[in-house]
């Protein structure tokens, strides 16, 4: 059977972009064409090419949307022809099943650690021993970053990734292949056979970039969960997660830096593996993210020392964490001559950067009230210089955290700062106590408005529930104007506080009633800055709906959820009629989030504020949501239930809307189609009782969309 591969405008533009890159140009015909197995492989290669551009080279050629279009085409073809699915197909990263424990698996060769050095003398010493062991006058070294993550080994056989194993005890680790398959910068297949290689074991480090780490912690904070101390812990924790799909969401990355074992199909081994630098180049050419660009090959130890120190100076500018450099003898034959101990190879050494940990005294604890009324204890510290900044206060989160870390006023504490990450207290040092320390006592009343504090069952956080509490009102306004929210430039935290104190602002709507004449009296407010502020406030009225939703500061509603919410309505006030069940249909909205959203929109004060904002001219409609009046689903209503396997629910819903259909919130006689995924529950039962509802599978749905 032949199938049409659609020639969409997105693909047309993609052809245009891909052409001339010397890669693949399958979509050259202006007409839809008949596919063949060979064409499918080209489509897979095209997707792999774009994954590599995006995840390894950091230089995408096409938009996410265009990529998704191609991906959907592949899904469609593979559904029609499952016999063409290969284990390295881009669709095969996404597993459906959960990890059932992790099986212990031996490494092909033991995974050794590294010896450490801390200064130039240590490196000079290392070089002296290396010259003695190799009997060389001068040694060529390859120097590269020491990535701060979780180490892994990957085994490829006949070009396919067959196993991924954690370090474990060095001899055997845990088989974490399904989770590693989620890391897009790790190719599922690589053309090792072109180099005569049959089996290869590669080592590397799974890392989480500083940005992904911050995003992840932000999400944890929004959910009221304890945050992680550093990207390293986050990376190693991620590798052992039960659900591979959750691993995919964490945006892990991997650097591969060592070939530990190789067998050949051919008699002559590839010469690239004769040097360490050569193996980094080879890995890069095979599609891996190796430190090819970051490495430096130098003769003699002075060059090594210079490169290590220069790299340490730019450590903070890197998008990921490194905790040192690794120095490796470049020539593999010299490496073999030098051998190894049971702990580490003698031909390599780590140069550890200065620790970004310090001890200081916890002098006092202040309690701050946030925009949701949460009372956060903040430890005041004797100022200490740490990794380029002076740290004088650190959030200590909540009462449970204080207990876990056994913190007292007057304690000596060990603090750590990982890159750009907010400093954390690692632990208290009870052995250094003098007896003058005192317990940290949590207040019973709000430190700002004095009303009684409450703690919900199962929560660690005490809250002030007085919504008129000054602290909350001010914090809400600060959040409202902030960059990721309404982005009212030139407002800023300090101005909000100042304007509130002198009575120019009292709540969010008052931002839009600001009397600019009053500002002329204030220090630092010239004509230009007033005009800028006025223009920024005016411009913010046109911000897209998701920004307004995020700006409202509804508990548990971060930017991602705000986008989901904005896409679910045509007008913000539609939320005042949405039931909890309807909210639960939305992607990533669980009970806690649904309750919080409902609570917000059922509160008359909030509704009054939204009406006020609408009267003041704020944009409350989802302008991006076009009502499509043509397409093959016009007039048809859909509801999805259970877990979809090929599509994300938001993707499927967008497809319905793009084809002119609409999504309903629950099962009723108005519903035309119920699309049933795995583990469907009560909605399916309910729908079975209404004869007019067509109950279809995900595949039937895809066929309906793309007839
Ligand atoms: S080489 C036999 N290179 O650091 C090869 N290790 O503290 C040994 N690490 O266990 C490893 N970046 O997990 C090597 N560029 C790099 C590295 C690196 C990070 C990790 C690795 C190792 C640990 C030792």
Keywords:
707 residues, alpha+beta, five-stranded mixed beta sheet, five-stranded antiparallel beta sheet, 21% strand, binds 2-(butylsulfanyl)adenosine
Task: Please describe what this structure looks like.
The chain has 707 residues and is of the alpha+beta class. It has 25 helices and 26 strands. The protein has a 5-stranded mixed sheet with strand order 4-13-12-5-11. Strand 21 and strand 22 form a beta hairpin. Helix 4 (120-134) runs antiparallel to helix 10. It is globular and about 80 Å long. It starts with a strand and ends with a helix.
Secondary structure topology:
Blueprint: E1 4-5, H1 9-18, E2 33-34, H2 37-56, H3 64-80, E3 104-106, E4 115-117, H4 120-134, E5 140-147, E6 150-157, E7 160-166, E8 172-174, H5 177-180, E9 197-208, H6 210-222, H7 231-239, H8 244-249, E10 252-264, H9 276-285, E11 296-299, H10 301-313, E12 322-329, H11 332-338, E13 348-352, E14 357-369, E15 375-386, E16 389-395, H12 399-404, E17 408-409, E18 412-416, E19 424-428, E20 438-439, E21 453-455, E22 462-464, H13 470-481, H14 492-501, H15 508-511, H16 516-519, H17 527-540, H18 545-551, H19 559-568, H20 580-584, H21 591-602, H22 604-615, E23 637-641, H23 649-658, E24 662-663, E25 673-676, H24 682-688, E26 694-697, H25 698-705
Parallel strand pairs: 4-13, 23-24, 23-25, 25-26
Antiparallel strand pairs: 1-2, 3-8, 5-11, 5-12, 6-7, 6-9, 9-10, 12-13, 14-15, 14-18, 15-16, 17-20, 18-19, 21-22
Helix pairs in contact: 2-3, 4-10, 13-14, 18-19
The protein binds 2-(butylsulfanyl)adenosine.
Residues 112-114, 144, 146-147, 151, 205, 257-258, 326, 345, 348, 350 line the site of 2-(butylsulfanyl)adenosine (IVH).
């Amino acid at each position: 059977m032949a199938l049409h591969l659609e020639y969409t405008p997105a693909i047309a533009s993609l052809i245009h972009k891909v052409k001339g890159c010397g890669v693949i140009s399958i979509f050259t015909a202006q007409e839809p064409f008949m596919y063949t197995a060979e064409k499918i492989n080209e489509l897979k290669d095209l997707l792999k090419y774009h994954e590599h551009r995006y995840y390894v080279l950091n230089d995408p050629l096409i938009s996410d949307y265009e990529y998704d279009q191609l991906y959907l085409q592949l899904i469609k073809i593979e559904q029609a022809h499952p016999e063409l699915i290969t284990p390295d197909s881009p669709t095969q990263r996404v597993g459906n099943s959960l990890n059932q424990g992790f099986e212990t698996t031996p490494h092909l060769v033991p995974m050794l650690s590294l010896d450490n050095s801390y200064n130039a003398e240590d490196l000079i010493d290392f070089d002296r021993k290396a010259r003695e062991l190799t009997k060389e006058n001068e040694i060529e070294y390859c120097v590269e970053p020491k990535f701060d993550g979780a180490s892994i080994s990957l085994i490829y056989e006949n070009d396919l990734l067959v196993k991924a194993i954690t370090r474990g005890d060095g001899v055997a680790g845990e088989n974490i292949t399904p989770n590693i398959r989620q890391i897009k910068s790790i190719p599922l297949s690589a053309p090792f056979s072109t180099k005569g290689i049959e089996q290869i074991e590669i080592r590397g480090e799974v890392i989480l970039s500083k940005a992904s780490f911050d995003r992840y912690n932000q999400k944890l904070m929004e959910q009221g969960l304890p945050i992680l101390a550093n990207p390293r812990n986050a990376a190693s924790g991620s590798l052992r997660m039960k659900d591979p799909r959750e691993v995919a969401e964490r945006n892990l990355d991997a650097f591969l830096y060592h070939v530990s074992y190789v067998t050949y199909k051919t008699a002559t081994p590839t010469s690239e593996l004769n040097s360490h630098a050569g193996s980094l180049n080879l890995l890069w050419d095979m599609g891996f993210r190796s430190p090819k660009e970051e490495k430096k090959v130098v003769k003699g130890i002075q060059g090594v020392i210079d490169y290590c120190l220069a790299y340490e100076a730019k450590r903070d500018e890197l998008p990921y964490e490194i905790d040192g450099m690794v120095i490796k003898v470049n020539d593999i034959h010299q490496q073999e001559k030098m051998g190894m101990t049971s702990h580490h190879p003698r031909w390599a050494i780590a140069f550890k950067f200065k620790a970004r940990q310090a001890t200081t005294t916890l002098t006092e604890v202040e309690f701050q009230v946030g925009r949701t009324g949460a009372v956060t204890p903040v430890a005041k510290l004797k100022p200490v210089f740490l990794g380029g900044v002076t740290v004088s206060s650190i959030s200590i989160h909540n009462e449970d955290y204080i207990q876990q870390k056994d913190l007292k006023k007057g304690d000596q504490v060990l603090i750590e700062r990982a890159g750009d990450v907010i400093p954390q207290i690692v632990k208290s040092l009870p052995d250094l106590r003098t007896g003058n320390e005192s317990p940290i006592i949590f207040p019973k009343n709000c430190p700002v408005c004095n009303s009684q504090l409450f703690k919900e069952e199962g929560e660690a956080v005490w809250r002030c529930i007085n919504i008129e509490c000054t602290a909350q009102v001010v914090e809400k306004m600060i959040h409202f104007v902030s960059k990721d929210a309404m982005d009212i430039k030139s407002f800023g935290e300090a101005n909000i506080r100042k304007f509130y104190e002198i009575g120019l602002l009292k709540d969010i709507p008052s931002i839009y009633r600001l009397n600019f004449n009053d500002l002329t009296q204030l220090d630092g407010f010239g004509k230009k800055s007033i005009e800028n502020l006025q223009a920024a406030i005016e411009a913010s009225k046109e911000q897209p709906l998701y920004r307004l939703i995020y700006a409202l500061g509804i508990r548990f509603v971060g930017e991602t959820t705000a986008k989901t919410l904005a896409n679910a309505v045509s007008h913000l006030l539609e939320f005042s009629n949405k039931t909890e069940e309807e909210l639960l249909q939305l992607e990533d909205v669980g009970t806690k989030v649904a309750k919080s959203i409902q609570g917000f929109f059922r509160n008359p004060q909030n509704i009054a504020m939204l009406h006020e904002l609408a009267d003041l001219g704020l944009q409350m409609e989802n302008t991006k949501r076009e009502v499509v009046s043509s397409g093959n689903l016009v007039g048809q209503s859909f509801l999805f239930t259970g877990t979809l396997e090929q599509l994300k629910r938001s993707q499927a819903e967008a497809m319905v809307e793009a084809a002119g259909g609409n999504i309903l919130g629950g099962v009723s006689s108005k519903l035309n189609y119920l699309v049933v995924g795995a583990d469907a529950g009560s909605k399916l039962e309910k729908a079975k009782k209404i004869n007019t509802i067509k109950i279809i599978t995900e595949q039937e749905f895809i066929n309906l969309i793309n007839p």
